[in-house]
């Protein structure tokens, strides 16, 4: 089987590492592992490679050989530990046995010290058994979540994971797929059922294989056999010749800033050699920058590659990175970051469509200033202007896309999103964003009402002067920004997002599908391009124009929900563009022309919604009937 | 809650942090906010926002700190955040000449967005604890600050906690004056850290953490 072959081998070639390989591998063999429990999850991944055939000759194995030596000594002992580490229930029992770690009382005790010192405990515990680390080697505690909160949540969630894994096992057995070594590499064909299983979470130990499978990594790799090797030798050559390559330097500076809170990525004081994970990360990122010079290296890719490396080997990580940056997030990491801007435009359109209440927060003063004559007091509210002058909030959400929620959501939640991303494609990223925004609405309302209390109590007549509105506008933006920035970091329980939003079919945002996202991306990209072209044509790039333009748009024309064929207005604009002497009028015109093409979401039949709710009601009535009948019967 | 506007004394100032990747922008903010330091911070993607209240004379001000990603390609995303910032802090790493050369670009961005008059420009040379690896001298830094019209120049060490509080005090102190009719003259010319420090301590700045700040007076443990 292809996949079997592709697992990086360890033994072969380890001794024959060439210059680059040697230098990289160093003498890590037998280095003491800090935590016997934390790395076991990962070691298992490495261990699984040992059994397979080699693919990469020189460089990588050089690394892996040291690793395998590491594993050889650990795996025997670790084989059982890995399970312990993965599921908290067993952790609890083991703790009880040990007696030395944390007693339940301690976990529950109200220790202010736990939460008050988010920083600076780097090495406090890592030399011991590391109960402060999660199953992937991340610190449980961070600025937003205390260890206590984590442990409390994990107690239930680990049970959930055990249950889900059991179901997955049954599913695979029923479908006739082997689960050898707890590392299945074939999965049932796509179906609603499988989708549901994926949404409820792929077992952590299977994730590497499952992602690889769903993202069609193998196909990509089969078409590009040997490419990764070649890239690595190129990299060695560059380094040997000491060529100055910009990306290399930039990558270098981010290596140690990738998951400093993860034991696999951090270097303890006593270590002279950098962790193998950092070396792998370097190779993957440099190889990628050589493979795709259009992107090169973009900050945030270090997090993508870093997380992948916790679940799969280097070569697969590399190809997954290629797939993510081309298939799921096209253009997002390009030098001009246009892809990320396009996606923010798409997200804004989606918010407007699916979360109209939330849209009010983003363009909050529409009603107050929309029709009056205070043009400078509010942000651009033109029909489409937010597509090229993206609302401030999008710089927060931009990072959600760039790193696919790594560092945005807590790791278990991130992984659940990744499960779905690779199964359902990029529309799920948008869904996840929308779900997060929807869930954060309550927080925003809280923050908002506090502020309104403070401010509106004074100026009741609504007689804001411009400056006040401007101030409030700024403040609102900050507030939203802060809430949106912080909220996802506290979303410890992934099931919140799924149970409260994603699994609720009747919530409109769940209508969003890949087709819609693709269409929407095209539309936004075209709009942004047109806008840019017009502006270059007219030569209005200075700021005074833009601010003038902000307000004028508000008054321009009525909302037009039908989708015009852009052609007519385009021609008009082309013809007229040259006639304008007044820049501002020209900008107005451009915006009018552009915003007359409004994106039309697929709405489906309006009745379908209705029927669904009726269906649901009928179902509930029936249920009630049945249960009451049952009771009658019993009685 | 009636009569005067209660929010009035809580003036908000937007401060944007710029500078090449890895020079210590996040670290500077973290030192200021929590007085802690880690060897490595996660790379900042996009923009992070934090706010902190400071006390100055009898006024309370709220500082809104915008931490930005340093990689060059992110520069295109950031202008809108510079646009209405009161203060722009451009950070470089004294052990990396290139990061020092890079500040011109950031300053240019700021001037383009804000105009020189409307923003307090600060240039900060970070990592002053790494004296052995120094590639940019204090004098060079000062000269450049003067040349680019930066009102505040300081060398800091976020690791040692050196000069960080002072930097923010200095900034805070310059804010209201700045607002009330551009007494910019008072702000200029005191580029020396020592002078800045004395002034800051002597003024009515009541930071919550003043005590520990005095400890820093002798502070640079390098």
From TrEMBL, chain A:
One of its GO terms (molecular function) is GTPase activator activity. It comes from the Eukaryota. Residues 114-128, 541-555 have a biased composition (Polar residues). Pfam families: RabGAP-TBC. InterPro entries: Rab-GAP-TBC_dom, Rab-GAP_TBC_sf, Rab_GAP_TBC_domain. Residues 14-23 have a biased composition (Gly residues). It is found in: Bud neck; Cytoplasm. This is Rab-GAP TBC domain-containing protein.
TrEMBL record, chain B:
Residues 185-204 are annotated as: Disordered. The gene is TDEL0G04210. It comes from Torulaspora delbrueckii (Yeast). One of its GO terms (molecular function) is GTPase activity. This is Uncharacterized protein. GO terms for biological process: cellular response to heat; cellular response to nitrogen starvation; cytoplasm to vacuole targeting by the Cvt pathway; Golgi to endosome transport; protein localization to phagophore assembly site; protein-containing complex localization; retrograde transport, endosome to Golgi; retrograde transport, vesicle recycling within Golgi. CDD domains: Rab6 (cd01861). The keyword Nucleotide-binding applies. One of its GO terms (cellular component) is cis-Golgi network. It holds the Pfam family Ras. The lineage of its organism: Eukaryota, Fungi, Dikarya, Ascomycota, Saccharomycotina. Keywords: GTP-binding, Lipoprotein, Nucleotide-binding, Prenylation. Gene3D superfamilies: P-loop containing nucleotide triphosphate hydrolases. Coiled coil: none annotated. It is a lipid-anchor. It is found in: Endomembrane system. It comes from the Eukaryota. Belongs to the small GTPase superfamily. Rab family.
């Amino acid at each position: 089987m292809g996949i079997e072959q592709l697992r990086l081998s360890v033994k072969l070639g380890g001794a024959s590492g060439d210059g680059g390989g040697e230098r990289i591998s160093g003498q890590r063999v037998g280095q003491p592992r800090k935590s016997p429990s934390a790395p076991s999850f990962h070691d298992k991944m490495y261990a699984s490679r040992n059994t397979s055939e080699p693919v990469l000759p020189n460089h990588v194995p050089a690394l892996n050989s040291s690793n395998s030596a590491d594993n050889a000594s650990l795996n025997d002992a670790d084989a059982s530990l890995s399970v312990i580490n993965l599921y908290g229930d067993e952790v609890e029992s083991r703790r009880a046995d040990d007696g030395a770690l944390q007693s339940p009382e301690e976990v529950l005790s109200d220790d202010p010290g736990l939460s008050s010192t988010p920083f600076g405990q780097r090495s406090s515990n890592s030399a011991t058994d590391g109960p402060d680390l999660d199953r992937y080697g991340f610190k449980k505690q961070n600025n937003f979540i205390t260890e206590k909160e984590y442990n409390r949540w994990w107690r239930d969630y680990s049970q959930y994971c055990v249950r889900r894994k059991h179901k997955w096992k049954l599913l695979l057995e029923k479908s006739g797929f082997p689960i050898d070594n707890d590392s299945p590499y074939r999965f049932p064909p796509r179906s609603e059922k499988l989708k549901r299983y994926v949404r409820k979470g792929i077992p952590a130990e299977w994730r590497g294989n499952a992602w690889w499978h769903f993202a069609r990594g193998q196909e990509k790799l089969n078409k590009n056999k040997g490419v990764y090797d070649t890239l690595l030798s190129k990299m060695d050559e560059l380094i040997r010749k000491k060529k100055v390559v910009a990306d290399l330097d930039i990558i270098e500076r981010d290596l140690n800033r990738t998951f400093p809170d993860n034991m696999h990525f951090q270097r303890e004081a006593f270590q002279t050699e950098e962790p193998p994970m950092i070396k792998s990360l370097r190779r993957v990122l440099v190889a990628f920058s050589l493979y795709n010079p259009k992107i090169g290296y973009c900050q945030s890719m270090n997090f993508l590659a870093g997380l992948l490396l916790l679940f799969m080997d280097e070569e697969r990580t590399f190809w997954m990175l290629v797939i993510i940056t081309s298939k799921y997030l096209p253009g997002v990491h390009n030098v001009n970051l246009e892809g990320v801007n396009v996606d923010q435009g798409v997200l804004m359109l989606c918010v407007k469509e699916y979360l109209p209440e939330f849209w009010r927060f983003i363009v909050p003063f529409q009603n107050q200033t929309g029709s009056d004559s205070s043009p400078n007091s509010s942000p651009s509210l033109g029909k489409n202007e937010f597509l090229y002058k993206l609302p401030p909030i999008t710089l927060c959400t931009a990072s959600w896309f760039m790193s696919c929620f790594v560092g945005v959501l807590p790791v278990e939640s991130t992984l659940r999103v990744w499960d779905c991303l690779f199964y359902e494609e990029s529309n799920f990223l948008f869904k996840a964003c929308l779900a997060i925004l929807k869930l954060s609405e309550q927080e925003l309302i809280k923050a908002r009402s506090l502020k309104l209390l403070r401010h509106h109590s004074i100026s009741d007549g609504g007689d804001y002067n411009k400056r006040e509105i401007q101030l409030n506008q700024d403040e609102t933006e900050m507030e939203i920004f802060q809430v949106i920035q912080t909220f996802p970091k506290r979303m410890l329980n992934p099931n919140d997002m799924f149970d409260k939003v994603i699994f609720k079919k009747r919530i409109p945002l769940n209508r969003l599908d890949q087709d819609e996202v693709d269409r929407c991306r095209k539309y936004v990209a075209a709009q942004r391009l047109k806008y840019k072209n017009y502006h270059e044509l007219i030569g209005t790039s200075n700021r005074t124009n833009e601010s003038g333009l902000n307000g004028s748009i508000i008054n321009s024309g009525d909302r037009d929900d039908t989708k015009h064929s852009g052609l007519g207005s385009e021609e008009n604009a082309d013809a007229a563009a040259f006639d304008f002497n007044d820049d501002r009028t020209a900008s107005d015109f451009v915006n009018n022309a552009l915003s007359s093409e409004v994106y039309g979401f697929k709405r489906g039949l309006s009745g379908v919604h209705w029927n669904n709710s009726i269906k649901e009601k009928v179902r509930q009535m029936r249920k009630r009937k049945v249960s009451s009948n049952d009771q009658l019967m019993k009685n | 809650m009636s009569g005067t506007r209660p929010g009035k004394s809580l003036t908000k100032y937007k401060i944007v942090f710029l500078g090449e990747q890895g020079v210590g922008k996040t670290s500077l903010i973290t030192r200021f906010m929590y007085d802690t330091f880690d060897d490595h911070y996660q790379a900042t993607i996009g923009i992070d926002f934090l706010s902190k209240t400071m006390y100055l004379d009898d006024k309370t001000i709220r500082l809104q700190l915008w931490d930005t990603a340093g990689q060059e390609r992110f520069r295109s995303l950031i202008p809108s955040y510079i646009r209405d910032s009161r203060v722009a802090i451009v950070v470089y790493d004294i052990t990396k000449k290139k990061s020092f050369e890079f500040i011109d670009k950031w300053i240019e961005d700021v001037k383009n967005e804000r105009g020189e008059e409307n923003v307090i420009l600060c240039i900060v040379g970070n990592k002053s604890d790494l004296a052995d690896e120094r590639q940019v001298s204090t004098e060079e830094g000062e000269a450049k600050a003067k040349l680019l019209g930066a009102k505040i120049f300081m060398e800091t060490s976020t690791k040692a906690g050196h000069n960080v509080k002072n930097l923010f005090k200095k900034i805070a102190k310059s804010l209201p004056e700045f607002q009330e009719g551009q007494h910019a003259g008072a702000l200029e010319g005191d580029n020396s850290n020592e002078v800045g420090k004395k002034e800051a301590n002597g003024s009515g700045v009541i930071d919550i953490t003043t005590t520990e700040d005095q400890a820093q007076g002798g502070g640079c443990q390098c």
